[in-house]
Design goal:
Blueprint: H1 3-34, E1 46-48, E2 54-62, E3 65-68, E4 71-74, E5 78-82, E6 85-88
């Protein structure tokens, strides 16, 4: 193999590798942001029921759920977490 062949191969492989890396990075960010559970939930975030009605605001986040207006909401009741708040199942 000549030096120019190796250089050409590298120049073709680098954009492909960077593109795959970017797709994986974006996919993991979307999965992290949209999954249920308490990850990404912070005190003060609004909590919506399945009909998108505001139930209240997060008082405290616990390992297995969250407190909203003094009521415990279990982790498995969280449908997804978005930039606008917490949506329950």
């Amino acid at each position: 193999m000549t030096g120019s062949t190796i250089l050409t191969a590298l120049l073709c492989a680098i954009p492909i590798a960077l593109g795959l890396w970017a797709v994986l990075l974006l996919a993991s960010g979307v999965a992290r942001r949209n999954r249920g559970g308490v990850a990404g939930i912070a005190p003060g975030m609004p909590v919506y029921d399945a009909d998108r009605q505001v139930l209240g605001y997060v008082d405290r986040v616990q390992e297995n759920g969250l407190l909203v207006g003094g009521q415990f909401i279990p982790e498995n009741a969280v449908g997804r977490v978005t930039a606008r708040g917490v949506v329950l199942n």
